[in-house]
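2 proteins. here.
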Amino acid sequence: MRKEVKMVMVTVILLLSFASINVTSAANVYNISADSYSNYFNESGYIKGANIKAGDVLDVYGTIYDKNMYIDRPLNITSSSKTGKIINGTINILSGGSGSNVTGLRINNTRDGVMGIFLKDTQNNTIKGNTIQCDGSSGHGIALTGSNCNNILENNLSEFETTVGWTHSPIILGNSNYNNIKNNYIISRVSNCIYLSIYGSGGGLCYYNNITDNTCIGVDTSWCYAIQMMGSYNIARNNTITVSNLTAGTYGKGAYRGISSESGGNTITGNTIYATYCGIFASGDSIISGNTIYGYKDDKTADYTNQSNSGITTGSNCTVTDNIVNMFYGGYGIYVTGNSNITENKITTADTSKESIYIYGGTSGINISRNIINSNSTGVLLKKQSSSKCPTNTTINDNEIITTSTYAIDSTGGTSTTIKGNYMNSNGKRGNDAVASASGDVVTGNSGKLLPSADVGSGSFNKGITVHLTAVDNNDPNPRIYYTLDGSVPTVGSTLYTGSISVSKEGITVLKFIAVNLDGEVSDVVTKTYIVDTKVPTASVNVPGGTYNVSKSVALSMSESGSIYYTLDGSTPTTGSTKYAGSFSVGSTCTLKFLAVDKAGNKSPVYTVKYVIDKTAPKASASVKAGTYNVSKSVILKMSESGSIYYTLNGKTPTTSNARYTKPINMASTHTLKFFAVDKAGNKSPVYTVKYVIDKAAPKVSLTSPKNKAGKVSRTGTIAVKFSESVKAGVNWSKVYIKNLKTGKKVAVSKVIKGNILYLKTTSKKSSYTWYQVYIPAYAVKDSAGNKLAKAYTFKFKTGK
């Protein structure tokens, strides 16, 4: 067995982080690798023999595959080299291993049922600084059953299993108490990030656990609660529930619930929760305080009638205090289904159909006080579940409620409601007038800000407008209104409003006004800015209409602020057409039409731009084929579409700087014509090459063999006639002959031309000492250009013996 024993001083330094193990003698260090694993563990993963003792160090280095470790004595398991990695294996700490430390390891499991670190019926262990990813079903990163007083610290945990369910939670506890889960970074694609459950054989809830300062990133499936607590007296404190490290659109918006308390007696405090469907859910008997919650914008089909879409949802006997709830995109602020105290919260809701505080069903004795509410719907709504189940004896006191809805408080769905001492403004109402109450409700002592209003909001207009001012007060039916139109601050010495105000001047008019009631109360100054703009805007495009051989990035602009609408099919655009939001690509032929609409509603004329996108190269041709000709040729060049042709006659490759073809080219002499076409989009054809040989000279006899009047010529030899150039048979080819001058008769002869030489051979032996005449008539031969032998040629010779 390979064992490395370190010096006492080195061991003390290595074990400074393992203070939970009290060992009086020096610890031994065992290097655990894929090669040495079998020296220390049997095939099942249990420690062999008794050499490894309590307090010893198992120092893991390198990667170990498919191996488990069952720790049945208190040990320190680490990787001093920081290379230790376990793949598809579990570190199991058993009862006898209580007091162990597992630090600095990397564990990556992909198989179902394979966990990273499993604590079973053990206590006082520290699991710190490990990086664990488990993607298989039931493949938890860190799991505890029947284990107490353990520290789960500073680990980086993730799971990316795609099967929906709770069985992949990175941290899961069952029947485990007094554990400290702190400063962990957790990503879960499907399941709860931290789950206090009834996990494990025999089950059992979890109590007195501390969940603090963790960062949890989940997804918006109903199986994913960032922190789920089953059991009582647990604390979730200062945790961050977020989506910042996940790609938008890949993992959704965030955990379905931020923190969920399924049992009573839990405390949820100081947490920051982003992008969850329900920030905090507490079934009852919980304290919810000091949390900051941001709801998310749901771009799916959300069920907004469900209380799940809320900042906080509570059952009975909950204390909800000092929370900040921001539901900027939709959902309820606080959804209350049981008797609870809702105090000193700051609530902002944007949904016009979801209230800031929604009280539902047969509740009794709910206290709502000292909250600050800004809402686009009713601030506090009491809603009955049935005729026998409705909120009763609700107290709504000392709240500040500002809403754009008709009422700040609507208690018509409850009974025996007390509404007192609230400061409230709704749309056109304040104080007691901002309450819709039921018979038997007590509504008293409520006030609100004296707030005048204008029936026309700030904006731009393409013609003059008429503005009416109003002010509502509980005691004064007609508060006085004073205003200015020059932007100065109005006072009681300013113009008194007595009727409609006309705003028709081109440009900016700043209306400021105040209201004063009979008690002398002066409202805040209200400012409205009106821009009268009758000038029609202009619009332009960065790419002029034309023909192009590449796609074009088209950008539109207008002369002032506003919107541009456009079409690409040639139809006339309207404000219902596509709204310009940034440059777009034109990759095919189209007709762009667009118009601009400024903020006042003035419309520009419709602009039309036609783009021809032609990415196909043209073709070109010459009317006269390459060849040899005995006359001048008129060459016409053509191309397959509109454009230009460029050419040279000297054999050089043409460019657009060379001659542009405008008329037929006269080929009077030999030339090499090269040409190419360029269409209107700029596409270029290949370069075409055509060689013309213009030959107007007729062939001539330049030499004969034998020579004229030669004697002693062979009676059997071949007679050769050489021409000035290569020739071929002409129209009088058949009239070429050899004549015996003695007899006056033509002799049979064979004729053949090779290049520029005509070979004549008599078919029989010529007579001795006899004169013969060779006759080649005009037009007997011609050259390749068709030029003919111009006149007849004759010569004679005398044979020998």
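next one coming up
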Amino acid sequence: MNELISIKNLSIRSASETLVDSLSLTLIQGEPLTILGETGSGKSLLAQAIMGILPAGLSCQGDIALNGQRMTAKERRHYWGRHLSMLPQEPWQSLDPVMQGREQVAEVYREVLAYSAAAAQKATQTQLQQLGLADIQHKLPSQLSGGMAQRLAFAAATAAGARMIIADEPTKGLDTGQRDGIVQLLKSQTENGGLLTITHDVAVAQQLGGRIIVMRHGKVVEQGSASSVLTTPTAAYTQELIAAAPCYWTDVTPQQCHQPLLTVRDLAQQRNGKTLFRHLSFIVHHGEIIGLYGDSGCGKSTLGNTLLGLLAPNSGNIEWHADIPRHQKLKLYQDPPSSFSPAASLQTLLADVVRRHGLQAQQIPPLLQALMLSPSLLTRSSHDVSGGELQRIALLRAMLLSPKLLVADEPTSRLDPITAKQIIQLLVKAARQQQCALLLISHDETQLKKVCDQIIYLQDYARENVINHCD
């Protein structure tokens, strides 16, 4: 049994609280180890502690050994690249935004392994071809899909030959096909090395197999083989985490639809000369929940933006049956921090909305209560609350304006299952109560089937693929 990483009694503390409490684990060659838990459970801090890159203001106690040798954080940094590498949550955080794909990897061969320029280019070309990335060599990260960007980040992380890989939420925000591809790529790393994966996705943990440690609030609540933990969990929290998967949700009875809000006829849209969808026709009713399903790149966000008037269609038309003000056609973004300024408190940002649109500040407290939010959160900035809390505040901000159409663009793809279930339930409840049409964009078909009145399968482009419960 070859122990690659061994941790004993690791604790991570801030000035006021313990974030990870007395954690111990062992990563063995050939056996994947997955840390499973909700947002804020301390999983990513564990990865940062192993790498020796904990944020300022946090202290770490306990023993961390690599290949059986106890090391300080400074000593572990000398292992970066050749022996130990980390795949961060967002591939764009580890890729140079102004460097072509080929150079992202070639730089590792030159700087870490001291390859000549020609040898580095040859090794890079071979590696990118093996990963199905031969066509992205001259593209920038912003020109890549999420799956391609993550594979490129994997290529750069493993180019120097690291046997120990730490993957922090490697499939967050990816559709099912891309997620499964990244999982298989990671599993291949365990044959001659070790893989420590941090995730909130139960499906990813199941595919990886090996062993699982379930964390909550910085503590281990359960651990064991993947098969035993995921099929016969003993801890109440693990049971709750698994039960939050959409396949276990209660089916919602489709609403009877009466008053039309808008009608879409023979709509078509292109991007960079590629047809995304065509001959698309459907009706949206007040208070209706519509699912928009398809893989990444099929045009889901484009259709949402077209309905909101942010893009003009290539052909076809959208007929509104009432004069709806612009501020009542709103969007809930996939990545909550991208829609909030970190330079001001959340209270200030909400006050700006109230003042701009002549609303009443008294509307905020009941919405906070309905969305299960503490008023004290509003004194913080967007960087100082969790992703789930920030997405609920984004929903509160939208509900203040009594929207008639709300486009929710993958609103839960970056959230853990428990938080995701809460967000979807709150979204549907708010839309029903305010008679707001909700366009729910997702690559999770099961989730959509559980809550939607109709589903549009966009990749098929045609009206025949609209499952409509309102005819």
